[in-house]
Amino acid sequence: MAEKLYGGIEGGGTKFNCAVGDGPKNIVAEARFPTTTPAETLGQVIEFFTAYANDLQGIGLGSFGPFDVDYTSSTYGYITTTPKPHWGNTNVLGMLHEKLKLPIVVDMDVVVAGLGEAKWGASKDDSHSLYLTIGTGIGGGYIVDGKPFHGLTSLEMGHVRIPHDFELDPFRGACPYHGDCFEGLAAGPAVEKRLGQRGETLPDDHPFWDIEAGYIASALVNYILSLAPQRIIIGGGVMQKSSMFPTVRKKVQELLNNYINHDMLLNKIDEYIVPPALGGRSGMLGAIALIMDSGK
Predict the structure, then answer these.
(1) Which strands make up the sheet holding 147-148, listed edge to edge?
(2) Low-confidence residues of the chain: pLDDT under 70
(3) Is the peptide bond before 203 cis (omega within 30 degrees of 0)?
(4) Which pLDDT score is estimated for 3?
């Protein structure tokens, strides 16, 4: 019997990552396309999957957002109020369905990355895990017993409010909606707007990274106290700086101040706040997990 293959799409604000396979040990094809306009980028995605359409059981899509994941909504599968040029009010699901006559299941990009890590990666042994990405934007997905947690809307963890010391950091924030929310202070564009250069060009010992780590730690403490995840996985370009994980872990412990008496937080923080085990493939593998486990 022929193997069952699935398509996975991680639709990010910078690029769309696509894969065909059934898990990290069996990826038969993958491709990456820059996020330009919906017509151009989705056209390339459709062309890639068309070659495998007869072999696919379905496709999972994780999209940058805000992305409507309420299947009862009239804009289900739409990117809605994004600041990303050309992509506001884009019917991504509809454009894919028009050309690819396959079952397609959708969720936020950070959610599917969390699903990938929960199924095959750093949180595969945890019932409750949090995946956070800090890069072009900031977003988070909370995975409970292998399923994404949803409420009234998808979670928007990048827009929580965190302490902002204006004497330490006079920057007023870059979020077009909230100014100095978490994303407005700590995402890649906020770093560049504040300092006049991209974060990856700053040396590892630049003093801003200590401020950045403080913002990340403040947000993590909010998530720890409200959601109590068994593990926190952080991806994205900002966390590539060598000092970030050790500094964030230390600041989280300082902010919690031994309030939560748990061994993972007191003595195993380096096992608790971790990078993705699947590396740059978390999202597209998570998208494959999304369609595999959907029952469609």
Answers:
(1) 147-148, 138-144, 128-134, 231-235, 273-274
(2) 1-2
(3) no
(4) 77
- Main-chain dihedrals φ then ψ at residue 22, nearest 5 degrees: -140, 20
Q: Specify the pLDDT at position 2.
A: 56
CATH fold of 5-112+280-292: Nucleotidyltransferase; domain 5 (3.30.420)
User: Strand, coil or helix: what is 115?
Assistant: helix
Predicted TM-score (pTM) above 0.85: yes
At position 145, the amino acid (one-letter code) is D
Q: How far apart are CA 174 and CA 238, in angstroms?
A: 16
Closest listed residue to residue 137, CA positions, set 122, 152, 156: 156
SS3 per residue for 47-92: HHHHCCHHHEEEEEEEECCCECCCCCCCCCCEECCCCCCCCCCEEH
Spatial CA neighbour of 188 closest among 1, 2, 12, 5: 12
For residues 179 and 73, give the distance between their C-alpha atoms in angstroms, rounded to a whole number: 28
Domain locations along the chain: 5-112+280-292, 125-275
CATH of domain 125-275: 3.30.420.40
Give me 204's structure tokens. Answer: 């590892």
Please tell me the predicted confidence (pLDDT) of residue 84.
85
Q: What is the pLDDT of residues 79-137, one digit of tens each?
A: 998 878 999 999 999 999 999 999 999 999 999 999 999 999 999 999 999 999 999 88
Please determine whether the domains at 5-112+280-292 and 125-275 fall in the same fold group of CATH.
yes
Q: Yes or no: say if 20 and 28 are a contact pair by the CB < 8 Å rule.
A: yes
